[in-house]
Automatic annotation (TrEMBL):
PANTHER family: RNASE ADAPTER PROTEIN RAPZ (PTHR30448:SF0). Keywords: ATP-binding, GTP-binding, Nucleotide-binding. This is UPF0042 nucleotide-binding protein. It holds the Pfam family RapZ-like_N. The lineage of its organism: Bacteria, Pseudomonadati, Thermodesulfobacteriota, Syntrophobacteria, Syntrophobacterales. The keyword ATP-binding applies. HAMAP family: RapZ_like. InterPro entries: P-loop_NTPase, RapZ-like, RapZ-like_N, RapZ_C. Residues 178-297 form the RapZ C-terminal domain. GO terms for molecular function: ATP binding; GTP binding.
């Protein structure tokens, strides 16, 4: 597992989470050493089967060397997955402003800037920092395009990010072709950034307006029975199942290892939860390792 992406996007937190679930972890590894490390693991540490490596622009040969090195190790038969982390510019600015750390690109020729020269900058953000953030995003775009999975951490706390890594990667079994994550969420709290497919179920009848059902969530059988009792719900389920029957075999043929589908309603408490529960069962019944998250079900 290559953990990479934008500086300040949570890669170090992810590496610690991988370490906690039994991966051999090395951060800031010079990419030319990667083949030798994997050969060492195979020869001297044969029980080491899961490795997570933090590799990014802190190591200055990375941009020039990663394409050739990644191709080389894949040709040797290693299963290489690239987990790319990113966040919005505003969030990255805030994180660097709070920690007062220097962006790695600011230390490169052309970016290095004395802090004292930036005391009058707008909003307390170093001009060189903004340039570095935008330039790094540009430089890493080809790597992002080939990533196995992209995770936007803009709205994730450190705890939520650790939980996501732990839940997703601790229990994945090698014989399973694809891991499916099914999410429910409320549009009023924002759309999840890492979903491959987002389906809006706000058109379905809303249990919120039934006084006896309002305090409950979509995990409750009473709420589920009420939502399923409507024709629109049955039509929607039938159409989505037909769509997934078409898509899933093609995702597998493509070699996709992870698929995230998100169902959203207004508050993320009733309709979206019911749909997430239903389609989690749908995937499990077809043999997929399935994780279910109800992001906003506990919100008032």
């Amino acid at each position: 597992m290559v953990v990479t992406g934008l500086s300040g996007s949570g890669k170090s937190t992810a590496i610690k989470a991988f370490e906690d679930i039994g991966y051999l972890c090395i951060d800031n590894l010079p990419v030319p050493l990667l083949p030798a490390l994997l050969d060492l693991c195979e020869g001297e540490m044969p029980d080491t089967r899961k490795v997570a490596l933090g590799i990014d622009i802190r190591e200055r040969t990375f941009l020039k060397a990663y394409e050739k090195i990644f191709k080389e190790i894949q040709e040797k038969g290693y299963n290489l997955e690239i987990l790319f982390f990113e966040a919005s510019v505003d969030v990255l600015q805030r994180r660097y402003s709070q920690t007062r750390r220097i962006h790695p690109l600011e230390l490169w020729d052309g970016y290095k800037t004395d802090r004292s020269e930036n005391s009058g900058e707008h909003g307390g953000i170093r001009r060189s920092l903004l340039e570095a953030i935008n330039r790094e995003r540009e430089l890493l775009k080809p790597l992002r395009d080939r990533a196995t999975k992209v995770i936007d951490t803009s709205e994730l706390t450190v705890h939520a990010l650790k939980q996501m890594i732990t839940t997703t990667y601790r229990l994945v079994r090698e014989e399973e072709a694809m891991t499916v994550q099914v999410l429910s969420f409320g549009f009023k709290y924002g759309v999840p950034h890492d979903a491959d497919m987002v389906l809006d179920v706000r058109f379905l009848p809303n249990p919120f307006f039934v006084e006896s059902l309002r305090p409950l969530t979509g995990c409750n059988p009473e709420v589920q029975t009420w939502v399923f009792s409507h024709d629109d719900t049955q039509d929607f389920i039938r159409l989505v199942e037909s769509l997934l029957e078409f898509l899933v075999p093609r995702y597998l043929k493509e070699g996709r290892r992870y698929f995230t589908i998100a169902f959203g309603c207004t508050g993320g408490k009733h309709r979206s939860v019911v749909m997430a529960e239903h389609f989690s069962s749908w995937f499990r019944n077809r043999g997929f390792y399935t994780l279910t998250f109800h992001r906003d079900a506990g919100n008032e």
